[in-house]
Amino acid sequence: DDCDDLRARRAWDKKLGLGRQKIFEVRKHYNDVTFIDEFLTADFAAEQKLFVYGFNEKGNRWEILDREFQKVKRKLLQQLTNFGQPIIEVVDGNFENRGELLLAHRHDGVDLRVDYAKDTLANLQAMWRRPVAIVTRVDGKGVLMRFDGRDHADRKVDY
User: Fold this and answer.
1) Are 102 and 113 in contact (CB under 8 A)?
2) C-alpha–C-alpha distance, residues 38 and 118, integer Å
3) Distance in angstroms (rounded) separating the CA atoms of residues 154 and 21
4) Do 103 and 132 contact (CB within 8 A), yes or no?
5) Nearest to 104 by CA among 122, 119, 92, 118
6) Rounded CA separation 33/87 (Å)
7) How far is CA 96 from CA 71, 102, 146, in A?
8) What whole-number distance in Å separates Cα of residue 93 and Cα of residue 97?
9) Helix and strand counts by DSSP (H, E) for the chain
10) Is the pTM of the predicted complex or chain greater than 0.85?
11) Of 5, 10, 126, 155, which residue is 20 to 30 A from 59 by alpha carbon distance?
């Protein structure tokens, strides 16, 4: 369990026949998130050539963004938490004392897709029948995105 040498771990076999038992023990005590957090190693990530990818709008293509182990691990864990969907919370149902709905995006290092956010605000506004806003971060800056039923508007905020 505490062996840090990759070569020694690969050759590890005490001839105890406990491999199957260990597999079932891990399956019983770990879920996907805790398994990756506990057992994913930098050696394994490098050997399997794991990386973080994203869409480059300038080049209009998907490309590798990073191979650094902690970023790869963080991205894997983030995708499993809430199934990769952003966590949005209701902050106020009477925002600015006007019956407007205010939401907040729990920013975990991944920006909301602005096009999805705007579509979602429009759909929520149709149900709420009052303006709807969300506070989030875009490119590291706090932004309040709002839809009033006709127009989308953004303004900078501390967040």
Assistant:
1) no
2) 37
3) 56
4) yes
5) 92
6) 17
7) 38, 9, 13
8) 9
9) 6, 7
10) no
11) 155
Mean pLDDT by 10 residues, the chain (159 residues): 74 82 92 92 94 89 95 90 87 97 91 95 98 95 98 97
Outline where the chain has alpha helix (H). 6-10, 19-29, 32-39, 42-47, 69-80, 114-128
CB 124 within 8 A of CB 97: no
Backbone phi, psi, residue 150, to 5°: -125, -50
* Among 69, 89, 81, CA closest to 34: 81
User: CA 30: distance to chain centroid?
Assistant: 20
Q: Which of 112, 148, 151, 105 has its CA nearest to residue 130?
A: 148
Structure tokens of 148?
């009033």
